[in-house]
Automatic annotation (TrEMBL):
Ranges annotated as biased composition (Acidic residues): 1-10
Species whose genome carries this gene: Bifidobacterium italicum
Source taxon at top rank: Bacteria
Region (Disordered) residue spans: 1-38
Name of the protein in question: DUF4192 family protein
Organismal lineage: Bacteria, Bacillati, Actinomycetota, Actinomycetes, Bifidobacteriales
Amino acid sequence: MDETMDESIEPTEGIGTAGATVAGKAPSGAGEEDGAPPDVGALFVPLGGFEPGEERLVDERDAACCERLHERYRERCRDRGPGEATGERFAEVCADWLAWLDADGFDPFDCEADKLCALAVLMTDSLAARDAFIMTLVASPDAHDAADFVGFAVHPHAPGNAARMERELNAAFAKPQRPDVERILRGVEICERAAQIVPDGFAAHPLAVASYGMWWVGDARALETAAHAIMLDEGMRLAGIILTALLRGVVPQWLGRRP
């Protein structure tokens, strides 16, 4: 991917610094009150979903769709700036994403290929949008509309949006109550399905988001999925953060209180 596009829109205080780490330091995770990190191996169990090593079959039509979307985004960034370019796409893609998360009888194989391509490309082209999709999974369950997250995606550097993201993410991380695991796992499956059908250049970010969701709910596949994302993109910082959190025993508080 074009590095200049990522650098121009990457949030300085986003998912990577507000959840798994705060100002570069790992917060106390579940079971760390006595100074010893928790036994992550005991907290994480394999949950249902795709296997990280499953074969990926990329249709040339989906590959072409991804390239068209990516080129269109680059043109919009040049003509109107990254904020407007992201805003132009985020509302529609996020609306589809939220509809999948809340659908009755959800099946990731029912997700339309063109919409999965749009999701994967947007996560790749805009790190702020990628972080906003993560917020739809782990932040307050009262926010279920694309408009609730557009600020994170379009204006990530605005002081109010940056502070709100950090506040909400840290609150969710420290919350002892069980999150909506089923909904988070739906998001994981959507990202895994998207990564299956798009070219390598657009698969790493969906896999990193999937690994984040897995880490949040204690899915043992988080490690392998994060490693897969890094194999596709060695500069994938989000997946690196998940690997570091797992190695340090940093997990959301609720996992240490799970029966």
